[in-house]
Amino acid sequence: MLKRRDFSHLEELKYADPNAYQDVLRSLVDAEENLLSPRNKVTASAEVFEDAVTGELVSPLQLAKSLAGMEVLPQSGVDIGYRNSARPRKAAKGIYQGDIGVNTPAATVGATPMLVKGVSRWAGDSAAAAYVNPEGLDLATASKKDIQAALMGLAASTGDGARMIQANKRYDIPDEYVDEFLEYAKRGDASLGSVLKNTGLIVKGQNRPNDVVDMASGKRVVELSPEEQEAFYNQRIHDLTKVWLQGGGRALNEFENDLSVPSNFYNMEHNVPFDLGNSSGFAESTPNRVGFLESLVNSEKGEIPPEDYYKMQQLAYLAHKKGVNIKGVKKASDIESNLQNMLTIANPESKRGKQFPEAQEANNELLSKVFTYPTSRMVEDETKSISDKSIMESPSRMAGTNPEAARALEIASGKRTESPGDSKERALVINSGGGNVTIGEGVLRSNGNGKHKNGNGH
Hints:
- The chain has 458 residues and is of the alpha+beta class.
- The protein has helices at 11-16, 18-33, 45-49, 60-68, 88-92, 119-122, 126-132, 144-158, 161-167, 175-184, 192-197, 208-211, 226-246, 274-277, 295-301, 306-321, 335-346, 357-371, 404-413, 441-444; strands at 70-72, 79-82, 98-99, 185-187, 190-191, 266-270, 289-294, 350-351, 354-355, 384-386, 417-418, 428-431, 436-439.
- It has a four-stranded mixed β-sheet. A three-stranded mixed β-sheet has the order 3-4-5. The protein has a two-stranded antiparallel sheet with strand order 1-2.
- Residues 35-40, 105-111 and 376-458 have low confidence and may be disordered.
């Protein structure tokens, strides 16, 4: 029988970060009672997406089972098989459907949303710093996680949804893999597909399902034939599932190796806000369905364009380093006014007619730095050579055959050329506008377990 415990020391966290609060609570209880089996404690992306022996991407069925977790006998804690959430008649016929949300916490312990108003909680994290200041990263000594975070930041700075999807990509997932996974995956009592069908379209005070425009026809979806409507929503489900699977089941711009199942805690993100892109149908285009964003960040970003929100995160980080604590985002007609408003609230330039020239000078310096940040390049050194640094945790974990580093850097930088010479001498040279970055052949060559059974993605 569970004992009553006092968690009053977590009260501040409960209101500041509900997601982290739930996971700390879960961990504290489990540490004392050992309620969960080892399999049910898995929250790391790689542990469910990859075969423990070969490192290859597991089958869609195995992935659904791993996400759903094991059935555990009460009290004994003994695993008796993967939990099957298919209805009794289907289960009796040997059909498997796993509730992928049942054993995955809303967020992992220690994961910190990169909220502008919560900058003090993430400014000291090296990956977060790499995200908002990618050109300040020393590739020679940076961790793999920090390099990936920098790539995510470079993509976010452009506001380009396709680049952001690419920067968050961990696996090459074929379309047929997505379709098969959807056959097995549930969330709660509904199929995952039915959950994702309208996610991001059900918003209080709005009638998005009635307003949403199909980019291909230029018509509102409700004006299409039943067959066309079904095709639209099937594609929407497929796109969202594929983006999530390609990222290893992680949230958008998640630096850690943590699973983030689409839910109320991880909201579907229209990169360019729905209200800004719906008239042309762009809001529901494939590259604008960038994934699932942590709910508090999603709420704070709201209708702010992605590249502007990124600058707000940059400002919060830079200001924090100068001892100025940004209180949150502000909305004005242009990004410069937004940032200025954020600064003057955090660091007032005047009060009751009295001027504070030092504050004004500090604010101007911070604004200037944000607008001159060279986020189009990784480093300033024109011939920076990295011959022994792997971008991802292990290139062999990719479901395709090309290392993620080359693809992500190519997308982030916009140009690439290959150096002459045989395979031992070849390297990727990135022309990034402000200086070239050379990735040596040792990084571009996978040193893992070879090709993966699922081949290249679509």
